[in-house]
Design a protein that fits this description.
heterodimer; A: 140 residues; mainly alpha; 74% helix; disordered N terminus; B: 126 residues; alpha/beta; five-stranded parallel sheet; 5 strands; 19% strand; globular
Chain lengths: 140, 126
């Protein structure tokens, strides 16, 4: 039997103006058919985003302080994946830029980029809060 | 995979949210899912139970997704088990490495439900 590679097209908008719509669409996709398990997952991811972002940025700072560059890169990479998974492509791009600066050990550049990431985390948290309030209540 | 049994898919990601998202997409299509939070856990699952396909994140601590893929490939040497890699790394960097490690397919994050299911179904029915 052949083992032929399958390469589907990449997806995800990078247009900042499209972020609110992207978040809404992605949350709807995660919510799926809206089974109790889907609701629990969507609520956990959407409402848990600010705390998760704060934890990952804390891990980044701790890793940078101790010179654990691999851990620093992984923390930013996880935040980037989280952003993509929640329909926040602009934050994901900012995380990629920060990841590149950490990999290249460009401290000044990394600080600037961390600030940008922080701003976008705040903006993303607002959008997700709005989405979260529209989600179904969790099952009893 | 017997004709009547749903395919059993191993999902490997150290990020619980990402793993659970993929697992939910697969379960919604009637597939059975086993989640592993690390490369080591994935190998344990693949050794102890039947797996029809694996969906593996690339960037993970300890054993990364590419090494996990290579080891799964060794483990599945006698069977043609699809291994689908997923990552938010730039495709230009990640794609060649994924296929060099024996991956059958490669998905860029965010992984869309429809893309994941159509890709996996295609791979399972080759």
């Amino acid at each position: 039997m052949s083992r032929r590679p399958v390469r589907p097209p990449s997806t995800g908008s990078s247009d900042p103006a499209d972020v609110a719509g992207t978040v809404h669409d992605r949350v709807a996709e995660i919510l799926g058919a809206g089974t109790p398990a889907d609701v629990v997952l969507a609520r956990r991811m959407v409402l848990g985003f600010p705390a998760k972002a704060e934890r990952l940025l804390g891990e980044l700072d701790g890793a940078v302080e101790t010179g654990a560059r691999g851990d620093a890169v992984r923390a930013v990479h996880t935040l980037k994946g989280t952003a993509l998974n929640l329909g926040l492509p602009v934050l994901a791009e900012a995380c990629q830029a920060l990841e590149d600066a950490v990999v290249a050990d460009r401290t000044a550049s990394a600080l600037d980029r961390r600030t940008r990431v922080l701003e976008l985390v705040a903006a993303g948290s607002e959008l997700l809060d709005r989405e979260g309030r529209a989600l179904p209540e969790p099952p009893p | 995979m017997t004709p009547d049994a749903p395919p059993r898919i191993l999902v490997v990601d150290d990020d619980e949210d990402q793993a659970d998202t993929i697992a939910a997409f697969l379960r919604s299509a009637g597939m059975t899912v086993v989640v592993a939070g690390s490369g080591h856990a994935a190998l344990r699952e693949a050794t102890s139970g039947w797996v029809d396909a694996a969906v593996v994140d690339v960037v993970m601590p300890d054993v990364d997704g590419w090494r996990t893929c290579g080891r799964l490939r060794d483990l599945f040497a006698s069977r043609d088990v699809p291994v689908l890699m997923m990552t938010s790394l730039p495709p230009g960097d990640a794609l060649p490495r994924s296929f060099a490690e024996g991956a059958t397919g490669h998905l860029s994050k965010p992984v869309r439900r429809s893309v994941l299911l159509s890709t996996l179904r295609q791979l399972l029915h080759r």
